[in-house]
Design brief:
The complex is a heterodimer of chains A (about 450) and B (about 180). Chain A has one domain: Porin. Chain A has 3 helices and 19 strands. A 16-stranded antiparallel beta barrel of chain A has the order 1-3-4-7-8-9-10-11-12-13-14-15-16-17-18-19. Chain A has a two-stranded antiparallel ribbon with strand order 5-6. In chain A, helix 1 packs parallel to helix 2. Chain A starts with 7 loop residues before the first helix and ends with a strand. Chain B is about 40% helix and about 15% strand. Chain B is globular, with a radius of gyration of 25 Å. Chain B starts with a helix and ends in a 20-residue tail after the last strand. The relative contact order of chain B is 0.21. Classes of the chains: A alpha+beta (about 450), B alpha/beta (about 180). At the A-B interface, helix 1, helix 2, strand 3 and strand 7 of A face helix 1, helix 5 and helix 6 of B.
């Protein structure tokens, strides 16, 4: 058997055939693939663009749906009482939840069976003793404060402090009531309308914006560093000399001042009862003893540059009409500079109470001030306060006050976030009387 | 030679075509977002879509988060929503914006409501999803979310003219711990 190789002619023929096959059969196939892939490649960016457009459109639809739901929700909230609206069919579960929440809010607000009240309580119990004659060392129940707020609507808010308080009242030295009986006082009852940061209006019984302390701590000893208020800001029924409470109207807000943080408070109210001797409630809750109204204007700064700093002053004007005396113009100028931070506080306030009886050339000025500094070390906060007030012996409105001055030192221990234990020693020098040494151990709490 | 040239052309065309076809199977490769590891760890302050505010300075933001401002320029009451204590997002807000510890923050609001200066206490919600829905639902709401938790239902505002994706943005949050 002999193997024979292909002849050159046959080889040429075979090449020709393959070449023709490639040219006429495979080439069109490959060309077709090339063309089709090129077309496909050209189509893919378009498809991707379409997809992106579709995504954008879907997002836009979602946004518009959300916006429609918001507008509907806002409409429902502003409607006085609306029947439950028919549920809107949407494909978005988020929108459905929006509806649900809005409906719930409206329903809860209109449901008479549910309360909108929020309540917080404050209280204190004190063991107190001093060197004053006739005073005994005793455990004392302090003020039991039920602080109630309610968001009536987006613009209106209610706020009140209902105080259960034991012991007799002391009004300009006049004592009334029993030692161990309890009474109830509505110390604050305010309906607040908040239009903007620049204008808020409150009506009711509120704390007069004289100085800083009076509107910063109200009736809670737990908030205060010390066991009690400075004598200058003592309550009217505890021998205080200021009109701490006012029944009337108060406008407050921000004054556009950039980083200065200027605020204003303007108040008009009944003022304090002025018929002396006073045997009734000194705050004129229901009836004013005269047509003249008391005015108060306060301005204060809270600059951004110094966090926690507040500097301000106020001017209060009233006309008192004590029995058997001519009318007395009362003017109170107060100024304060306080630095309050979480670990450090420094309070400084000074004021002067000016009484000018009509027809008498003499004016009675009663100056007073206090300074208080404290610093937190862990749960401990040692503090120091010095206070001073000097009323004339012949002061026509508060003849019992006289000169009082002296330091207080103490330590506050925060046993928990809501319970504070305080130990305080006070030394008070009095004009024409022996100085008083007092020691108090107090537990103040919120609940 | 012509035939060889034709063959080469065909082969080259085929290779290019196949390569083009293969590259076409990854259509969105170019449209994928570039990895944003840094900005994903930023904390965006978010408001409702209807809120006209675009930018806030840090002092303004601090005032808002501490209740010192109660209304937006459009008159809507500001409602602050916070994530519950213990979450890193909250720690960032307390540290960077409020500059307070948890207890001080709570006492601050308790005191503010007590004095009447603060209209409403912050709402506290458990999850970023809850915060997002709350901000979406409440026109005056302001809250915060990780950039990775953002979606078009809320809008991130700029702080000191910087958005959460910008360099120099101040609010950074540690990455979530894998559970």
């Amino acid at each position: 058997m002999k193997f024979s190789g292909p002849s050159p002619i046959r080889g040429n023929l075979a090449l020709k055939l393959i070449g023709r096959m490639i040219v006429w059969r495979i080439f069109p196939l490959l060309l077709g693939i090339l063309v089709s892939t090129t077309i496909l490649r050209a189509q893919q960016p378009a498809a991707a663009a379409d997809k992106q457009t579709l995504q954008l459109l879907l997002q836009r639809i979602d946004q518009l749906e959300a916006r429609v739901q918001q507008l509907e929700a806002a409409k429902q909230q502003t409607a006085p009482i609306s029947l439950p609206s028919a549920p809107v069919q949407t494909s978005s579960p988020q929108v459905s939840e929006t509806e649900l929440q809005t409906d719930n809010a409206v329903t809860e607000r209109m449901d008479a069976g549910k309360t909108l009240l929020r309540m917080r309580g404050f209280g204190d119990i004190t063991l107190h003793g001093d060197s004053q004659r006739h005073d005994t060392t005793a455990f004392s129940l302090g003020q039991l404060n039920l602080f109630i707020t309610s968001d009536i609507s987006e613009k209106f808010k209610f706020l009140s402090e209902i105080i259960f308080e034991g012991g007799p009242d002391n009004i300009f030295g006049e004592t009334r009531g029993e030692n161990n009986s309890f009474g109830v006082d509505v110390e604050r009852m305010v309906l607040q309308y908040s239009r903007s940061d620049y204008f808020k209006l409150a009506v009711g019984r509120y704390h007069t914006a004289i100085g800083y302390y009076n509107t910063a701590y109200h009736h809670s000893t737990w908030f205060q560093t010390t066991t009690g208020r400075p004598f200058l800001f003592q309550f009217e029924d505890r021998g205080g000399i200021l009109p701490v409470h006012t029944v009337g109207a108060s406008a407050s807000g921000l004054i556009p001042s950039g980083h200065l943080g200027l605020h204003y408070v303007a108040e008009v109210g009944n003022g304090r009862a002025s018929r002396s001797p006073i045997t009734e409630e000194p705050v004129q809750n229901v009836v004013d003893d005269q047509n003249h109204k008391a005015f108060n204007l306060a301005l204060f700064f809270r600059p951004d540059a110094v966090r926690g700093l507040q500097v301000g002053f106020s001017a209060y004007r009233d006309l008192l009409a004590p029995a058997n005396l001519p009318r007395i113009g009362e003017t109170i100028f107060a100024a304060h500079a306080v630095l309050v931070r979480s670990k450090f506080e420094w309070l400084n306030e000074a004021l002067i109470v000016r009484h000018a009886p009509n027809g008498i050339p003499r004016v009675f000025n009663t100056p007073g001030f206090y300074t208080q500094v404290s610093k937190q070390f862990g749960s401990y906060r040692p503090y120091f306060r010095y206070q001073y007030v000097n009323a004339s012996r012949t002061e026509p409105i508060f003849p019992d006050v006289g000169l009082r001055q002296g330091p207080s030192v103490g330590l506050r221990y925060d046993a928990s976030e809501t319970v504070a234990l305080k130990l305080q020693y006070d030394y008070t020098a009095l004009r024409g009387q022996p100085a008083v040494n007092a020691l108090a151990l107090q537990v103040g709490f919120t609940f | 030679m012509r035939r060889l040239a034709g063959l080469r052309f065909i082969l080259v065309s085929a290779v290019f075509s196949i390569a083009a076809l293969c590259s076409g199977f990854a259509p969105n490769a170019r449209s994928l977002p570039e990895p944003q590891i840094a900005s994903e760890q930023n904390l965006a302050v978010v408001v409702n879509l209807s809120n006209p505010v675009q930018n806030l300075s840090m002092p303004e933001l601090r005032r808002i988060f501490l209740g010192g401002r109660s209304h937006w320029p459009n008159g809507r009451r500001i409602t602050l929503v916070m994530i519950e204590p213990g979450q890193p997002e909250r720690a960032v807000v307390l540290g960077e914006i409020c500059q307070m510890h948890e207890t001080d923050f709570n006492n601050h609001f308790l005191h503010g409501v007590f004095t009447g200066e603060v209209l409403v206490s912050p709402k506290t919600l458990a999850t970023p999803v809850g915060i997002r829905k709350f901000v979406f639902n409440v026109p005056g709401a302001i809250g915060y979310l990780r950039v990775s938790d953002l979606d078009p239902s809320v809008r991130a505002i700029r702080i000191d003219e910087r958005g959460p994706e910008d360099k120099g943005y101040r609010l950074h949050v540690p990455p979530r711990s894998s559970k």
